[in-house]
Amino acid sequence: MFKDMSLIDHRVTEILAGGSATPEDALAVLRAPDDEVLALTASISRLRREHFGNTVKVNYLVNLKSGLCPEDCHYCSQALGSDADILKYKWLKTEEAVSQASAGLAGGATRVCLVSSGRGPTNRDVDRVSNMVTALKDEHPDVEVCACLGLLKDGQAEKLREAGVDAYNHNINTAESHHDSIVTTHSYADRVNTVEQAKSAGLSPCSGLIAGLGESDEQLVEALFALRDIGSDSIPVNFLMPFDGTPFEGTWELTPMRCVKILAMARIVCPDREIRIAGGREMHLRSLQAQALHLANSIFLGDYLTSEGQAAEEDLALIRDNGFVVLGADSGSSDVLSSSARHERDVSKGSGEVRAAYRDQGVSHDPVARRRGAGTELQPNA
Ligand code: SF4
């Protein structure tokens, strides 16, 4: 542990000058006392400012196919054997996928993440997603598209690249030394292989983790160094949302302070990579979301794959209120709604009820299953 916060500041200065964090630095950040977390954030935020200024990248998820997955990832509400009460549907049609993605872009996102449940795509699935990407880019030529379709087979990454996909997401999720205790139907090596295939095809690799799966501090550090070494350009940091009906039901290992320390550790290990606060942001960071933005430089707008996030307008207010700006918002690449238009639309889709639902959750903070957007008749939260 750092005996004195001036030591971490000294290490940050060395990293700014071209050095790199050691596993000991990373562990010390994770184990910082709670009353030092504000100082820790201030110090490590220098790395975030150096590489990303005051920008926040805003990403939007479209769940193209929900549930019905044959894999057994214990943390996942869509997995084989999960009894979580989530939306389940087969592939969205191209028009619906484009319409959902367009809502996210209008809401301020610059990257759209097209995600499907399942072990991995068939070649027909790759064609289907390729058609969606072509149609989406016809309407929004500047959109950045990330596909997340599971384990890739030879040639599929190249096909996606040819279709205009910019990035491919496949999370390693946890340390290699912890992997087999959270999933048995595929291996850590399978996951790394897919990230490598994406990279080789010229897709920007996006790979991250989930914290709160019973891993040790050392395993969190192991996972971050693996992500650094694998060359992940963007690193989504998820905080476990323990859905009822999954093996992790009732697992609450994280506190807001712990989540901030995890993001600080991610930043010091990977100072120039996109660190994205992903699933579980509202549930676990709670009132520390703003502090976390001084470490991370990217968030998802609105809802997650199977659960509802806070209202998209609150996400954008979080960014604005804390002196950050949405990356690309001034470039004209996204058709962001005016605040009055957004207010009118939010009222029409009942975001007030969503906020009330969050309040009513009290201390349990159970995930709220998504019931709007992709796969439903209701407007998306964007
Ligand atoms: S994480 Fe992906 S592969 Fe694993 S169960 Fe969920 S949808 Fe299936």
UniProtKB/TrEMBL annotation:
How, per the record, is the cofactor bound?
Binds 1 [2Fe-2S] cluster. The cluster is coordinated with 3 cysteines and 1 arginine. Binds 1 [4Fe-4S] cluster. The cluster is coordinated with 3 cysteines and an exchangeable S-adenosyl-L-methionine.
Keyword Chloroplast listed: no
Q: In which pathway does it act?
A: Cofactor biosynthesis; biotin biosynthesis; biotin from 7,8-diaminononanoate: step 2/2
Q: What class of enzyme is it?
A: transferase
Pfam families on file? BATS, Radical_SAM
Give the UniProt keywords, A-Z: 2Fe-2S, 4Fe-4S, Biotin biosynthesis, Iron, Iron-sulfur, Metal-binding, S-adenosyl-L-methionine, Transferase
UniProt domain Radical SAM core: residue ranges = 54-278
Which residues are noted in the entry as [4Fe-4S] cluster-binding? 69, 73, 76
Q: Name one GO molecular function term.
A: 4 iron, 4 sulfur cluster binding
- Ranges where the record places region Disordered: 332-382
- Known CDD domains for this protein? Radical_SAM
Q: Which residues bind [2Fe-2S] cluster?
A: 113, 146, 206, 276
Q: Report the catalytic activity.
A: (4R,5S)-dethiobiotin + (sulfur carrier)-SH + 2 reduced [2Fe-2S]-[ferredoxin] + 2 S-adenosyl-L-methionine = (sulfur carrier)-H + biotin + 2 5'-deoxyadenosine + 2 L-methionine + 2 oxidized [2Fe-2S]-[ferredoxin]
Note the InterPro entries from the entry. Aldolase_TIM, BATS_dom, Biotin_synth/BioAB, Biotin_synthase, Elp3/MiaA/NifB-like_rSAM, rSAM, rSAM_sf
Question: Does the keyword Hydrolase feature in the UniProt annotation?
Answer: no
Entry superkingdom: Bacteria
Give the enzyme's EC designation: 2.8.1.6
What binding partners and quaternary form does the record give? Homodimer.
Under PANTHER family, the record lists: BIOTIN SYNTHASE (PTHR22976), BIOTIN SYNTHASE, MITOCHONDRIAL (PTHR22976:SF2)
Annotated function: Catalyzes the conversion of dethiobiotin (DTB) to biotin by the insertion of a sulfur atom into dethiobiotin via a radical-based mechanism.
Q: What's the protein here called?
A: Biotin synthase
Q: Which organism is it from?
A: Flexivirga endophytica
